[in-house]
Amino acid sequence: MPSPVEIADRVSRKRAIVAAVAAIAFVVIHILIRPFSHSANGLKLDYWAINAVVLLAVLATGGGLLNNRQIRVLVNDEVSRSNYRTSVVAGYWVAMTAAMAVYFWPTAEGLSARNAVYVVVTASVSVALLVFSYLELRAHRDE
Amino acid sequence: MSERLINRLREERARRSLTQADLAEMVDVSRKTINTVENSVFIPSTVLALRLARALKMSVEDLFQIPE
Q: Does B16 fall in a domain?
């Protein structure tokens, strides 16, 4: 029977790969394939919003909520918490850069506030997840 | 201030014929934490450094050094 450390190792690697795939899919779907695909009117509970909230929740909690407490503690130990902080800082700076780009870019003047939020959130969440995934995979790499 | 920390974790672990997973279980952390400390990718907290030193029955100063 695998030990908690071995289970945590597997869960952590899988999480890093899933986070990278989810971040890439998020960018490809919402920026390249269907940009600004959210509904123009009514309640804004669309596919993009649900996707963004789920990815933010994964980033904030470390995911794996179905695992037992011991495994979650091991998966989200000191290194992962440090990687989380680094990725959130990267996401923050991407958000600031995207926000400033939207502000200064001449053709972005006609962009609605909602679409500006769409650009900033999509860019920052995906970069934060990619950075987290990269740092986690690097942590697993034997050198 | 130097951001580097030299450690003898890999040598000391190997000397005791422990795997990274063995040491991780002794210290109650993940294997990747042991791996990142050994590879100097991650500077451990004081608490973790003390726990590692205790698990290997060494002083923390023998396990970790600041380069001159």
A: yes
Q: How much is the pTM?
A: 0.88
Residue B23, domain CATH: 1.10.260.40
Alpha-carbon gap, residue A120 to A99, rounded angstroms: 6
Distance CA A22, CA A62 (A): 14
C-alpha closest to that of A56 among A13, A91, A21, A96: A91
ipTM: 0.86
Domain that holds residue B52: 8-59
Is there a domain that residue B48 lies in?
A: yes
Which chain A residue's Cα is nearest to B47? A78
Test the A interface: residue of B19, B29, B30 with most A CBs within 10 Å: B30
Q: Per residue in B39-56, pLDDT tens? A: 999 999 999 999 999 999
User: Cα dihedral angle (B30, B35, B40, B44), rounded to 10 degrees?
Assistant: 20
Q: Please answer whether residues A91 and A22 qualify as being in contact, where contact means their C-beta atoms are separated by less than 8 angstroms.
A: no
Neighbour count for residue A110 (Cβ, 10 Å): 7
**Interface contact B45-A74, CB threshold 8 A:** no
Split into its structural domains, chain B has a count of 1
